[in-house]
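Minutes, project check-in
Item: structure for the 175-residue chain
Input as provided by the requester:
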Amino acid sequence: MSNNEPRRAEYRGALEIGDISIPCFVLEDGTRVISGRGIMSAIGMKGRGQGVERIVRHRTLSRSIPSELAEQLSKPIGFIGTTSRTGNPTSGYEATVLLHLCEAILEARDNGTLQTEQEMRYARYCDILVRAFAKVGIIALVDEATGYQEVRARDSLHRILEAYISEELLPWTKR
């Protein structure tokens, strides 16, 4: 593979979180990737626009985005997907970018920077995601330490994540 040839996705799936589907991939080199639209949906950002890149230019959020994260958001990872359109490159972001973005938005909330209801919605979604990631993370670490990951159901961590997020989102469903 040459340096300008896009990597290939070896695996494809979706994190189903409430009514949001977040497409995710594992590339041939082991990089875990989340689609740009998936990141936008995960934090409650609506509209198609210029996608994730618009976060870097957002008048309020941009002040809380560390330069390293802004650079990652400005340079999506191009790859060839696993669907029938495998000849068409797509793009996404290293999976931990979603966590770092959530942390930046939550820091902006904690600093009193967020102003609009829309911005506060992003913070609510991010808060739910970060707590859910932590819960699933500790369960996965215990499973790995004990060897249980070898016998648990393949999708058990995903079901734990979905159940936790659904429980957290329940108070907001009436809004």
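Outcome recorded: The helical segments are 36-42, 53-57, 67-74, 96-110, 117-146, 156-169.
No further action items on this chain.
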